[in-house]
TrEMBL record:
Compositional bias segments (type: Low complexity): 428-444
Pfam families per the UniProt record, alphabetical: Glycoamylase
Domain of life (superkingdom): Bacteria
UniProt name for this protein: Tat pathway signal protein
Chain ranges of the Glycoamylase-like domain: 175-410
Originating organism: Komagataeibacter sucrofermentans
Record-linked InterPro entries: Glycoamylase-like_cons_dom, UCP028431
Length: 461
């Protein structure tokens, strides 16, 4: 079943992506012309997975990757509200897939969506290592794209990163602080050889962790209610055995923290405090996803409120639950807790069948409590930022591919070391206190380092 799910999910990225520009829509199939730069980051990683699995040839992966990086490199970077794809190396959250420019004036220059894009860019840099003209160009373009991101410009005076910027309103007065997907932005910024962050920014991000640490449904962990916050950074970076100062103090690594978050969500579904239909030990998963719509419906004589796209979740920080289950919450957590995720995926597919499982795998979300008089609500679209964790984490569980490729990237290693991480697959002692110089060829892993790489979780081939 997992083999089939991975294949179908990969196909979404291949079919949805524009072969000439590499732009990938936010959702597909959809009449919208909205392209998500985060989806592009997941897609750049998906092509390497596809080549390794034999879904496409390496030549096809190279061609699509090169088209994407060339398009990104030549896309206009300036402060125009209408004639730019980005500014200071950052990209707008959404681009118009027909023009490649900012979708509209409501769209922000996004630090986190640029980070998701750059994870894919750095994966490409480290994956395509052959001495061919095309693969050399991929490495060169990837290096240029990453090293032109001006993390210092996005950093605020208190060392935190702003969530974004716009020509109309300047910097967004909200910042990345506390455990969340923002983790990857700081690691990328710390690893940058140009315009990079200082370790003080990592400490600023950690400052509020104590407010989220605690017990929830039988687990003690660093809380973040939607599961995507426990998945995104981990999709590219293997945190098993890695500890920064905070993790050393708590005697836990961030991988284990995510594993506990998954178990807490399952326990929440079993308890089902909202009394929603379908919740069980094998039907669970709250994260940001589509929903039935912002509406009320009478269920068993009680008015229940439902939501459209929302950051659903359950944790000490907050709970937002309208009975909508997102399969990506479980599937994107397979590397953390396969022993509970696999039965969940099998049971959901067996129970609901083609209502929730189709051409590109699981639909984005479904809600057994919300009925239109004929059937319960199911989504008819797939979202790139939800398909991505499914594909990448399945492959990490099966082979460790994405993790192992990223371990070769000197920028990722430098970012982790400058954040104070030690242990696991990192060298016994930090190699340098500063970020590496720009490079077009990722550093090869020496034999001692290669042998220290942790194995992937046990899995069927």
């Amino acid at each position: 079943m997992v083999n089939d799910l991975e294949r179908r999910t990969f196909q979404w990225f291949w079919d949805a992506g524009d072969p000439h520009t590499g732009l990938i829509p936010d959702r597909y199939p959809s009449p919208q012309t909205l392209s998500s730069v985060a989806s592009v980051g997941f897609g750049l990683t998906a092509y390497g997975i596809g080549a390794e699995r034999g879904y496409i040839t390496r030549a096809q992966a190279v061609q699509r990757t090169l088209a994407t990086l060339r398009y990104l490199m030549q896309s206009p970077q300036n402060d125009s509200p209408d004639k730019a794809a980005g500014y200071h190396g950052f990209y707008y959250h959404f681009l118009d897939k027909t023009t490649g420019l900012r979708f509209n004036r409501d769209i922000e220059l996004s630090s986190i969506d640029t980070s998701l894009l750059m994870q894919g860019v750095l994966f490409a840099q480290a994956y395509y290592t052959r001495d061919t003209a095309a693969e050399r160009e991929i490495r060169t373009l990837a290096d240029k794209l990453y090293t032109r991101v001006d993390w210092q410009w996005m950093r605020r005076p208190d060392n935190r990163l702003s969530m974004g910027w716009s020509p109309e309103h300047q910097f967004i007065p909200n910042y990345w602080e506390g455990y969340s997907e923002g983790m990857m932005a700081y690691i990328l910024g710390l690893g940058a050889p140009t315009h990079g962050l200082e370790p003080a920014s990592w400490q600023a991000w950690l400052a509020t962790n104590s407010q989220r640490w605690g017990d929830y449904y039988g687990q003690t962990f660093l809380n973040f209610a939607p599961l995507f916050g426990h998945q995104y950074t981990h999709a590219w970076i293997d945190f098993r055995g890695l500890h920064d100062a905070w993790a050393r103090e708590k005697q836990i690594d961030y991988f284990e923290n995510s594993r506990r978050a998954v178990y807490a969500q399952q326990a929440y579904a079993i308890a089902n405090p909202g009394k929603w239909q379908g919740y069980s030990a094998t039907t669970w998963g709250l994260t940001a996803c589509d929903g039935p719509g912002d509406t009320m419906q009478q269920i068993d004589g009680q008015a229940r409120h439902f939501l459209s796209y929302s950051a659903r979740g359950a944790g000490r920080d907050y709970t937002l639950d309208d009975g909508t289950i997102a399969p990506t919450a479980a599937a994107g957590s397979i590397a953390f807790a396969p022993e509970i995720v696999l039965p969940t995926l099998r049971d959901m597919k067996a129970r609901y069948g083609q209502q929730i499982y189709g051409q590109y795998g699981f639909v984005d979300a479904f809600n057994p409590s919300f009925h239109d008089g004929k059937a319960f609500w199911t989504d008819h679209e797939y979202l790139g930022i939800d398909q991505g964790p499914i594909l990448l984490m399945i492959e990490n569980w099966r082979s460790g591919l994405v993790w192992n490729v990223m371990k070769r990237n000197p920028y990722i290693r430098a970012g982790l070391e400058r954040a104070g991480f030690e242990g696991g697959w990192l060298p016994a002692a930090p190699r340098t206190a500063t970020a590496p110089q720009p490079t077009t060829q990722p550093a090869a892993m020496d034999g001692a380092h290669a042998s220290a790489v942790l194995p992937a979780a046990p899995h069927p081939s």
